[in-house]
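Tokens help. One example:
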Amino acid sequence: MISSIFLPLAFAVCQVSSSPIHQRRALSQNDIIGLQLAGYLENLELSLYTGGCEGFTDVEWIAAGFPSTFQQDICAIAEQQQNQTSFIASSLESNGISAPQACSYNLSYDSPTSFVLLANQITSISLGFYLGSLNDFSPALQTVAASILSVEARHDAIVRNGMGASPFPTNLDVPLSSVWAYSLAQKYISSCPQQLPIDLLPPLGFNGMSAPTEAGQALYLAIVHANATDPSYQQVLTTGQGQGTAQLPEGLGGVVYAALTASSGDLTFHELTTTGTLAGPAQLVLS
């Protein structure tokens, strides 16, 4: 758990089983968009875990303090990501819908340790997407999405356990809307052959970048975490153009998400993540 801290903000505000049996299903528009985003995120994870599997030797993993079987686990995750990606692509293509193609990725790691830190961040996004999107799928696909979700959770637990963190840091995981998951993934994309029909939000960062904001506008940091069904809202104290600070509530742990909003607390999670976000979200791995 982490005690109360202040965060420097930077923001720009603009107004499954391994071999599933495939069956052709009539897809709704929500199914199509959900599967396209699922494929988009699975492509990202496939590139990540394939790189982790092939990029380091067993000796390097052990020298970095990981269990002797950890490279084998990472390679097994890569194989399962390939199977999930193929299944999602087949589900779309059997209905005459093109599956998302792999993008060029910005995956910054140079050691086993930096790899697992990145893997925890990216896998948490995919896990949150499946959790937050279950009700958007038609009943026939809800079970498929839930089965992928449970495997994603196991992947994340293996990664976190290997890095010495708790494999279950919170009682609940944080769901993500499609808009939030798609926006979060952009941090790891260099270029892509196509964009999905999902809104992209301006970025929110904690790295001191500056960007224009509307003078006199009251801003708040909405924090979505596993300890509450609705977001926590903290006022942003502006310190310069496009910059400010906000205080995190006490007692947070695991992975949380923060977004810039003009609301002081009257938005539900659904409202915040669909229409109420001015910039963000940003991901914070606290434990």
About this structure: The CA atoms of residues 66 and 221 lie 36 Å apart. The chain has seven helices and ten strands. The first helix runs from residue 29 to 55. Helices lie at 29-55, 58-63, 70-93, 112-133, 139-162, 178-185, 269-276.
